[in-house]
Amino acid sequence: MSDMAETEFKQAVYEVVRRIPPGRVMTYGQVAAYCGAARAARIVGQIAMFGPDDLPWQRVVYKDGRLAGAFPGGRSHQAALLEAEGVEILPDYQVDVDKLLWEPQH
Question: Which domains, from first to last, does the chain contain?
């Protein structure tokens, strides 16, 4: 990915994450696909790790609903943020992605 494409992809990720409503989630892969790079879930994870703190990164989860171990403050912090939005945290720090998955409108 060229520097310009990388910057555009990063900005697209920020915009999608910014739009995830409270109490809903998207997966890393879903964010990547929506931003035009379906196989870039890991890159989305890296962007999340170093991205702006003012975005709701807690709303981005693994495809099976697991919370991210690399989330600042750990899974327990991500869980607390999601619980504050009314999300039920299942055993082993998971959420019900079938129930909570958000699909952005283009």
Answer: 3-100 (1.10.10.10)
